[in-house]
Amino acid sequence: MDNRIKVQGIILSVMPVGDYDRRITILTKERGRLSAFAQGARRTGNALLAKTQLCTLGTFYLYMGRDNYRVSEVEVLDYFTDFRVDLEKAYHAMYFCEVASYFTRENNDEREMLNLVYAALKALEKGVLDRTLIKAVFELKAMCISGEAPSTGECVICHEKKEKRVFSVEHGGMVCSDCAVTKPGRFMELSESAWYAVWYIASTPASGVFSFKLSDAVLAEVAAAASAYLKGRTGHEFKGEKLLEIV
User: Fold this and answer.
1) Burial level of 190, CB count in 10 A (0-12/13-18/19+)?
2) Which stretch of DSSP H or E encloses residue 123?
3) Which CATH number belongs to the domain containing residue 167 in this structure?
């Protein structure tokens, strides 16, 4: 009797174990984020050598060992081979995987986050969109999927819809100009185009969110708001973002 389980997903991280093995973290459609041990995956000629690399999309056949999952077989659906030769693409991909790993858990329904990671990697691979835009969209959408969507329709303090507004990380999105006078915090001025972009990202499914372009000026606003929002709301320092600063 075959006691293997079959899951489909993307490898978020790869860690060497011992002389020849690997531990991989997979974001799966069926079981959320899980870790698995790939025996001999770093040995030359091993069937798992190329199939257990970062960002590999595939169908993974796993069986339960004594205390963890073990990789039996992998059917690769996409390698994202460009990431092996383009350092900037590789660093963006690593960052997206790190953020996704931070937000996801085992046995949770993480299909929307999986869709987001895949869509972001495909957008990177195609090279049509500005990578700064892809990063900003990913950051904001990841926050939305994790239950931290910024308010864009009404003031988060007085709950009224007003034309004069600013963006607040501390308060969770839109704050009207009247409330901003009385509340402490850092407020960011956003143009109407930037506000619309933030609203569009928050309201569009992950699979279709990488489908627009912005002017350089509006992109600068949205990118600054997205980065500040992710950092401020999570309080977490992502190593991948440090890498992006040097490319």
Assistant:
1) buried
2) helix 111-126
3) 1.20.1440.120
